[in-house]
Amino acid sequence: MSDAEVCALPHPRLPMAELPAEAAERAAANGTSAFFGQFGHAPGLIEGWLAWYQPLMLGGVVPTRTKELCRLAVARRTGCHMCQNGRFPDPSGTGQAVADGDAEDVLADRLGGFTDAEQAALAYAVAYYEDHMTIPDEVIERACEALGRDGFLELALMVAQFTGMGRLFSALGITAS
Prior knowledge:
about 65% helix; single chain; 9 helices; mainly alpha; AhpD-like; about 0% strand
């Protein structure tokens, strides 16, 4: 495979749907035209998913930063261009949940420079992505110790949806534009 093929941006697999003017303007303003253009064929579908997803991503017992680090680790593996290039804000409104340098480290698979809890969460995310049937007990135990059982279950749910939706977005060729 040539370098051009490896580096090529994905292309949308479905024709772009006609969005209502207000929705098209909002999508263009926040860089989600390709995302909403693809899902615009099923009005309300992605909005329903976002209504479930965003409160879990920005709330819960696990810090948004930890979930965002795991989302980026999964994005690296799914090849989802949109997921690799998008960033969640810090719920406090003070910037991004993950600084650019930390995001770059995760996307380069440099996972050692984070807190113990973040490393435990990242270890689970990677193990789940690689083979959900063979996650070592120690990985789950470490994540439970670091996040609590409730936090682990929250993280596990998020990692499962990061994996599935990242694969879907990648398969559909959705970019961050």
